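All the exercises in this workshop are built on plain-text protein records. There is nothing in a record beyond a sequence line and a structure line. A learned vocabulary of local backbone shapes supplies the integers on the structure line. The question running through the whole workshop is how a given chain folds. Here is such a record, shown just as it appears in the course material:

***
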Amino acid sequence: MIDKKRLPAQRADFVGSFLRPQSVKQARLDFAAGAISKEQLKTVEDDAIRNLVAKQVELGFKVITDGEFRRQAWHLDFMWGFHGVGHAPTKTGLPFHGEQAMIDDTFLTGKLALGENHPFIEHFQFVSSLAPEGVEAKLTVPAPAQFLAQMVMPFALENTRKYYADNEELIQDMAEGYRQFIQAVYAAGCRRLQFDDCTWGMLVDPAAVYMWGTDEAGLKKVQEMNLRINNLALEGKPADLFINTHVCRGNYHSTYANSGAYDKVAEVLFEQENVNAYYLEFDDERSGGFAPLSHVSGDKMVVLGLITTKSPKLEFKSIVAERIRKAAEYLPLERLCVSPQCGFASCEIGNKLTEEEQWAKLRLVQEVAKEVWG
């Protein structure tokens, strides 16, 4: 039997980020230009988040987010909340298929430490205060492995070595920072925390050996390193804190960064990472088949990302339902849920669809869930 305390709160789910309304986009531009104060920006963001939460609740979702409206990017803003991390406007961007992701370069400026008053604590408290009875807020943060990759991949290593002679001390400092953050956000009332993690998608890409500057044996060591830091960060977590991880292959302005099936990482990621659920990208052929789901250990859940956020075209409900049944050949239906494959706006720029098309996608998620699970 499945432990009901470890179930996601909804069969119909979503990853976390939403398209920023024009009011938020303009306010952030005005703030960057010095035309409005930080307090004025926050007021605009607050109003937009209130409207977003009302829409999520109206559609029947039992877990809500703030849409990541206060962030430039899904992962970097969290890193900037740590001591010892700096950032600057990028000159080259990150390579995505057909487009460069123009997000800030982020790097170490000293020893890493959480410090006090990470801004995401306050962000969570605000969205949590908006949740009506029977609804709870989820907080999304980059996985420790994602944070680590930002500092130890070949493009960053020379700078990182100014502060850390090897990776081990960095891993320990980073894991400790996460443990402290988890305790702080738990004390603020969070009971659902999500680790967003693109590192596994990078590892299954055909060009992974070049991205990591190693060989196949070296990639195995990277898998072990990623698993280790993620699990170290979770040591001592409160027993009733539900933690899931979302794995994807990049999401920027409807483009992607990587391709590859889960097979190469399934034994490590699905069998050994100490999370309660996996939110997995399965919206097209780049993600491969469902067979790796047979490696999902214990009573962990899987949220199938079968509906794409990269295109406004609506999937056929019957086809999505059939794909869920195909996945159930490898993992029991009671351990499956359904969602879009990623957020709608992992970065401020957002994906290439309208807010109306975004909500149509989420209505489809609800309809599919009702058809499959009743």
About this structure: The chain has one domain: 4-373.
